[in-house]
């Protein structure tokens, strides 16, 4: 049904429901909506997203929907080549293209707007999370919120997106979800500014993460896992910053102390981050044979591909009992440890690239409190 509101003729005793789609019935104190009949091809076409490919009738309906696309829309959809592994894209391409094709007549968005975020999201859902290629699982509201709020899409060069762009990504993916899976999407969206905090790892979890890193099945994967921990929990870099970091941005002084020069985006100033002492050796080992222009994390890459951190974690070996490995969890661990070390708050904000105290205040509950005597001494200060 439509929700468009148009002014009605105040002199009319019986508003024309078909003209506006909705009117307010003052006597009953209700909004009354006109019901619209859906093209039966769409209900049939959705059956092709159930993981089986659908019945012959469902496939025919989907082919009919695709045939209604303009030649330009079909060309742009088929020509899109994401910066993702080609073999994996081949598995999900038809699924994603059909989902966009169903959504296009039901939205005001273009192929270019919908295809990129949906391809990245479905890739993450299938090859990182491990979902089946089934719209009832993939295009589920809670999973979309997890992708946006916790794992987070990025630009194809690996740089982080602004909150405004993330809101757009959520809206675009949700429009497609509502088109292909209308019965499995709660109506209330979660505000972007209220996303759940990824909890920092405690000492026991960090020990398990070290075992996870050292237990990978190849030397390259072991190096990648240890580097990820060093850059996230040791320097507080975000997943996007880890994805684009090159060797020439990392300096080692005569005392083997390591400083990372982070090139910020969105007009923010660049910043220097000193790597925590307990992570220096593992990062130095990972960089030992890197050329200046090599990526520090997964140096065999040719480009800063989208979701490189989450994709790496998704294909890593994870023994039973391994906590979920997330970029934000590692970064929050670094922040909590720096707060516990009593780093000056403005020094910490500068190193973390924070513009406000919000993140620090939310993490304060994870910081171990000193004993009463220490608290008293801190409050008294020096004479």
SS-derived structural category: mainly alpha
Order of helices and strands: HEEHHHHHHHHHHHEEEHHHHHH
Provide the CATH top-level class of the largest domain: Mainly Alpha
Distance between the termini: 72 Å
Strand order of the largest sheet: 3-4-5
CATH level-3 fold name of the largest domain = hpI Integrase, Chain A
Q: Helical percent range? A: 40-55%
**Can you say what the CATH homologous superfamily of the largest domain is?**
Intergrase catalytic core
Number of strands: 5
User: What's the oligomerization state?
Assistant: single chain
The tally of domains stands at 3
CATH-derived architecture of the largest domain: Orthogonal Bundle
Kindly describe this structure:
With 383 residues, the protein is mainly alpha-helical. Helices cover 49% and strands 5% of the residues. It is built from 18 helices and five strands. Strands 3-4-5 form a three-stranded antiparallel β-sheet. A hairpin with a 4-residue loop joins strand 1 and strand 2. The longest helix has 19 residues. The N and C termini lie far apart (72 Å). The relative contact order is 0.09. The N terminus is likely disordered.
Descriptors:
383 residues; mainly alpha; hpI Integrase, Chain A; 3 domains; three-stranded antiparallel sheet; two-stranded antiparallel sheet; 49% helix; 5% strand; disordered N terminus
